[in-house]
């Protein structure tokens, strides 16, 4: 029994010893991960991360002017169509009704014109009054106006849709037996060989965006693992509400230095736009900042190699660095990722 107890005690001691070594090893590892850096003067460059989308530069939305009924659709989304190709037809009931009414009015006009000519001859020999002639002339005018209206109505009553351009069907709303809403397009065509990249820049960041500014474009088709150099080529002069974030944004068009493969309209992208202040400044990574009682400070190493808090004033330059305005000077040693329990060794 005593041997068994001694054996258990020995095992327990070994276990506690192992655990102590493990803790010491972890603590030692934690201490070794604390980094220091020397404050340097650099050009104050930062960056803004934004999202965007690929769009076709030239798109054509096709509407009709009347609430018709689609008879048959001959295309699908993604189809490439040639200019002049038949895309869809409409039910002819409404169109035939207008044609019949128009034909009746044209017959009526012909009859009125004959009566008018007879009335004019009778008036010459006193067989009718001038009022009768005048009334017939007015009836002719009214019928002529009606005929113009029916012809205009017939021209707006589409019989079919012919493709106005060559391109790809990127959106198709109409279907067989579809009742047309004149406020919405039936379909949308695009030239997919000519695309543009539009970024959504929040309005509070637009002051930092300039033409020809450099950036990195990261299409989601590459899962953001591949980036392409580019530059800002156009900044919109109006603001709108983002469809994704619901905040006010300004659209910024950018152009890659070389063609990006595999991207098509509708694909999403992200981008990092670089901002730059040409004045040399003391810069440090923003993760070196600590916050306490309404003030920011940085842990620094003083002349005696002791650790102390140094309160700082800084300017955020967008990105992962800040400009130090007061508190740290060039050559000072600061802690990049200090733990809360950091202390002098």
UniProtKB/TrEMBL annotation:
Family: Belongs to the membrane fusion protein (MFP) (TC 8.A.1) family.
InterPro entries linked to this entry: RND_pump_MFP
Gene3D superfamilies: 2.40.30.170, 2.40.420.20, 2.40.50.100
PANTHER family (UniProt xref): HLYD FAMILY OF SECRETION PROTEINS, MULTIDRUG RESISTANCE PROTEIN MDTA
Coiled coil stretches, renumbered: 95-153
Molecular function terms, GO-annotated: efflux transmembrane transporter activity
Protein name per its UniProtKB record: RND family efflux transporter, MFP subunit
Source species of the chain: Cetobacterium ceti
Keyword DNA-binding in record: no
Keywords assigned by UniProt, alphabetized: Coiled coil
GO cellular component, one term: efflux pump complex
KW Cytoplasm (keyword) present: no
Lineage: Bacteria, Fusobacteriati, Fusobacteriota, Fusobacteriia, Fusobacteriales
């Amino acid at each position: 029994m005593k041997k068994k107890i001694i054996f258990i005690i020995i095992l327990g001691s070994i276990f506690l010893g192992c655990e102590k070594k493990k803790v010491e090893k972890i603590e030692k590892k934690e201490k070794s991960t604390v980094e220091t850096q020397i404050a340097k003067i650099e050009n104050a460059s930062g960056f803004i991360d934004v999202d965007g989308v690929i769009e076709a530069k030239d798109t054509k939305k096709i509407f009709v002017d009347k609430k018709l009924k689609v008879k048959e659709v001959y295309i699908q989304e993604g189809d490439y169509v040639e200019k002049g190709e038949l895309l869809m037809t409409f039910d002819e009931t409404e169109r035939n009704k207008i044609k019949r009414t128009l034909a009746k009015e044209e017959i009526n006009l012909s009859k009125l014109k004959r009566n008018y000519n007879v009335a004019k001859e009778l008036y010459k020999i006193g067989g009718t009054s001038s009022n009768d002639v005048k009334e017939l002339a007015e009836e002719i005018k009214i019928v002529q106006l009606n005929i113009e209206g029916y012809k205009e109505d017939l021209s707006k009553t589409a019989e079919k849709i012919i493709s106005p351009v060559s391109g790809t069907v990127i959106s198709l709303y109409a279907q067989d037996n579809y009742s047309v809403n004149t406020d919405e397009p039936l379909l949308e065509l695009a030239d997919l060989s000519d695309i543009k990249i539009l970024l959504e820049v929040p309005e509070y960041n637009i002051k930092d965006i300039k033409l020809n500014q450099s950036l990195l474009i990261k299409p989601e088709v590459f899962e953001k693992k591949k980036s392409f150099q580019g530059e800002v080529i156009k900044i919109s002069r109006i603001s709108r509400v983002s469809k994704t974030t619901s905040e006010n944004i300004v659209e910024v068009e950018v152009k890659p230095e070389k063609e990006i493969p595999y991207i098509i309209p509708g694909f999403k992208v992200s981008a990092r736009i670089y901002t730059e202040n040409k004045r040399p400044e003391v810069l440090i990574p923003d993760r070196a900042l600590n916050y306490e009682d309404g003030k920011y400070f940085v842990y620094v190493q003083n002349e005696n190699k002791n650790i102390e808090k140094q309160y700082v004033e800084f300017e955020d330059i967008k990105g992962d660095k800040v400009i130090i305005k007061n508190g740290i000077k060039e050559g000072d040693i600061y802690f990049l990722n200090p733990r809360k329990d950091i202390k002098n060794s």
